[in-house]
Amino acid sequence: MTKAALSALIRPLVEPRLPDWVEPHWFTSREEALEIAPSAEIGWFDFNDKQPMIEAVRAAENLKWLNSIYAGLDFLPLDVLQERGTVVTNGVGINALTIAEYTVMLMLAHAKGYRDVVRAQDRNEWLLDSPGKRELAGERVLLLGLGAIGSLVKTRLEAFDMEVVPVRRSGGEGALRPDEWRDRLGEFGWVILAVPSTPDTRHMIGAAELDAMRSDAVVVNIARGDVIDQAALVEALHAKSIEAALLDVTEPEPLPEDHPLWSLENAQVTMHLSGRAQTKMFQRSADRFIENLARWRAGDPVTPQMDLEHGY
Fold first, then answer.
1. What is the pLDDT, as a whole number, of residue 309?
2. Confidence of residue 34 (pLDDT cuts 50, 70, 90)
3. Active-site pick, 83, 135, 180, 253
4. Active-site hit among 110, 224, 284, 288
5. Residues near 240 by Cβ (< 8 Å), separated by ≥ 6?
6. Residues forming beta bridges with residue 220, ordered by sequence position
7. I need a labelling partner for 278 at 20 to 30 A (CA). Which of 96, 180, 193, 284 fits?
8. Is 224 a catalytic residue?
9. Domains of the chain
């Protein structure tokens, strides 16, 4: 039997489908997880808070496979997992569909000034003109990140007749290489960030990049808050050197109540809700876990595996 430490949150979706070679141990608290962790070979230690996950992973000295619903696990002690030879599967792609839909919603809401329409309704005011007149069709988009989320964003925006230029290491087929996009920032009306959070992507959009953008450029961040130098972004928004920032993620999260991003008229903050705007996240993750159990038993690679050295 293979001992598995599993969150009770996914028990109804997983337990009836577990193979007989898995010995499940369900936990409902940090204390229970820490008690089970040292002897577990398979672990699914998801909590709403990061610290209990970190503690459980450190305690799981015999862990061979760690699974998570979260796509970004850079906060875990990846060096410890790598040293132990632990395989890590994350939630990449689980929320890709809803995040891609959310991205389109953010862009349309900004282009049509929909926030002002809603506010007018709240005031019982009949507007005589649209507060937003921008059209997506024909505009150019720089897409930084062409993974599971970025790929779906690209196809959806192309359906709106937008020209989407992705950044990929190899370039080619209309894409830019990582050493080319900064010199081309002035060509795009929209800059979308869909990259993982790594040391290489931290503050990849800073003061210099913001200065290079057009005055009507809109920055859309669906990645992680730290890929943008937030202080530089606030300064650019204050100066109106770019048109707007649509931020599903910030640094830190939650954003402090007195942070200037809340009150800037040309910033929209959507509280990291894009991946939660769905009902199928846990079902998709449970299905993937059960499929991976069969692969694990057969000695085949489980998916999607994190590159622990690069952090994604």
1. 87
2. very high
3. 253
4. 224
5. 215, 266
6. 192, 246
7. 193
8. yes
9. 2-92+279-298 (3.40.50.720), 96-276 (3.40.50.720)
Q: How many residues make up the chain in this entry?
A: 312
Q: Does residue 272 have an active-site annotation?
A: yes
| Each residue's pLDDT tens digit, 84-133 | 999 999 999 999 999 999 999 999 999 999 999 999 999 999 999 999 99
The tokens of 271 are what?
């509280």
Say how far apart CA 208 and CA 202 lie, in whole Å. Answer: 14
- DSSP conformation letters of 96-127: HHHHHHHHHHHHHHHHTTHHHHHHHHHTT---
Contact 248, 106 (CB under 8 A): yes
How confident is residue 80, by pLDDT bands cut at 50, 70 and 90? very high
Contact predicate 14/286, CB 8 Å = yes
245: closest CA among 213, 290, 291?
Answer: 213
Would you call 185 helix, strand, or coil by DSSP? helix
β-pair partners for 283: none
H-state helical runs in the chain: 11-14, 30-36, 50-59, 78-84, 96-111, 114-122, 148-158, 207-212, 230-239, 281-298
Cis peptide before 304 (omega within 30 of 0): yes
Counts of helices then strands in the chain (DSSP H, E):
10, 11
Q: Output the six-digit token pair for 308.
A: 């622990």
Global model pTM greater than 0.70: yes
Q: How far is CA 244 from CA 96, 157, 217, 237, in A?
A: 24, 18, 7, 7
Structure-block tokens of residue 280: 């199928």
Give residue 142's pLDDT: 98
